Amino acid sequence: MDCVVCNKRKKDFEVWSNKIVIAATYDSKVQDHNVIRKLSEHEIICHDCMQKILDEVDETRV
Ligand SMILES: [Zn+2]
Questions:
Q1: More confident residue, 52 or 25
Q2: All structural domains of the chain with their residue ranges
Q3: What pTM was computed for the model?
Q4: Angle CA 52–5–13, to nearest 5
Q5: Distance between Cα 61 and ligand 1 center (Å)
Q6: Distance of CA 59 to CAs 11, 15, 26, 27, Å?
Q7: How big, in percent rounded to 5, are the helix, strand and coil portions of the chain?
Q8: C-alpha 17 to ligand 1 mean position (Å)
Q9: CA-CA distances (angstroms) from residue 30 to 9, 41, 62?
Q10: How far is the CA of 19 from the centre of ligand 1 (A)?
Q11: Which of 3, 29, 35, 51 could pair with 46 as two cysteines, CB 3.0-4.6 Å apart?
Q12: Beta partners for 46?
């Protein structure tokens, strides 16, 4: 599987699927992020890119 953000090939345990993101975060700010919104059911994000998204979302919090 390739990460939709960095296009690197990743193993199953290194990635977040759309469902995992939604189940694991329960966070509307994360789910509203551009990348997450575009994520289809068949696409995945690697841990590194997911962490960047979480950091970006945290920066928008006051
Ligand atoms: Zn990635």
A1: 52
A2: 12-60
A3: 0.84
A4: 80
A5: 23
A6: 29, 23, 18, 14
A7: 55, 15, 30
A8: 12
A9: 23, 16, 15
A10: 17
A11: 3
A12: 15
DSSP bridge pairs for 44: 3, 17
Q: Which distant-in-sequence residues (6+ apart) come within 8 Å of 25 by Cβ?
A: 31
Q: What is the CA radius of gyration of the chain?
A: 11
Give yes or no for a contact between 44 and 1, defined as CB atoms under 8 angstroms apart. Answer: yes
Q: How far is the CA of 21 from the centre of ligand 1 (A)?
A: 14
Give the contacts of 54 (CB within 8 A, at least 6 positions apart).
30
Question: Would you call 9 helix, strand, or coil by DSSP?
Answer: strand
Q: Give CA–CA dist 62/24, Å, rounded.
A: 22
